[in-house]
Amino acid sequence: MAAVQLDDLDRQLIDILSRDARVSNRKIASELGVTEGTVRGRIKRLQQDGLIAFTAITSFGIAQKSRLAFISVQADVNNVRAIARQISDLPLINAVMITMGQFNILAMCLFEELDEVVEVASDRILAISGVHHVETSIAVRTIRYNARVARIKADMVAEDASTTEGA
């Protein structure tokens, strides 16, 4: 897949929408000195290319699973992407990143009971072929949380008790 080329207008449009996604196309057009049709077309292209999406950002306050855990994983370097994908498919896991340093995968999850984290980290992730070591850190107090970076998804707050996925 070819690298996406964003011009200055695209970047300015994304910047405006990242501050307030509800701003009208007319207002954006006026601010950027282009037509409303240009704004509408650019937004449509950016969405189709998967570069932007519109969503409601929620907070921990409405999440049923309101405790945050970070699961650091040491995995075979040659299989790190495949292992990260397997981890991302696990129930409870909300985010997976490939990292540099002592651990090469970082997973994040929201949970309610400590047993949930033990089950996913020790029983599920550690059992994946190519995983050598797992360490879990649990957030005990959140000083700052940027929901634009790590979003609480709507299905994490679903009232349906029949699902244990949470993410």
Short description:
The chain is 32% helix and 18% strand.
Protein model, in words:
The protein is built from 5 helices and 4 strands, in the order H-H-H-E-H-E-E-H-E. The chain is α+β, with helices and mostly antiparallel strands. The chain folds into 2 domains: 8-48, Winged helix-like DNA-binding domain superfamily/Winged helix DNA-binding domain (Arc Repressor Mutant, subunit A, Orthogonal Bundle); 60-156, Alpha-Beta Plaits, CATH 3.30.70. The protein has a 4-stranded antiparallel sheet with strand order 2-3-1-4, covered by helices on one side. Strand 2 and strand 3 form a beta hairpin. Helix 2 packs across helix 3 (36-48). The two termini are 28 Å apart. Residues 150-167 have low confidence and may be disordered.
From the N-terminal CA to the C-terminal CA, the straight-line distance is 28 Å
Class by alpha and beta content: alpha+beta
Could you estimate the helical fraction of the residues in percent? 25-40%
Which term fits the overall shape?
elongated
The overall strand count is 4
Beta fraction: 15-25%
CATH topology of the largest domain, by name, is Alpha-Beta Plaits
The CATH class of the largest domain, by name, is Alpha Beta
Q: How confident is the prediction overall: mean pLDDT?
A: 82
Q: Count the domains.
A: 2
List segments where confidence is low: pLDDT < 50 over at least 5 consecutive residues: 150-167
Number of helices: 5
Can you name the CATH architecture of the largest domain? 2-Layer Sandwich
Q: How would you write the strand order of the largest sheet?
A: 2-3-1-4
CATH superfamily of the largest domain: Lrp/AsnC effector binding domain/regulation of amino acid metabolism (RAM) domain
Radius of gyration: 20 Å
Order of helices and strands: HHHEHEEHE
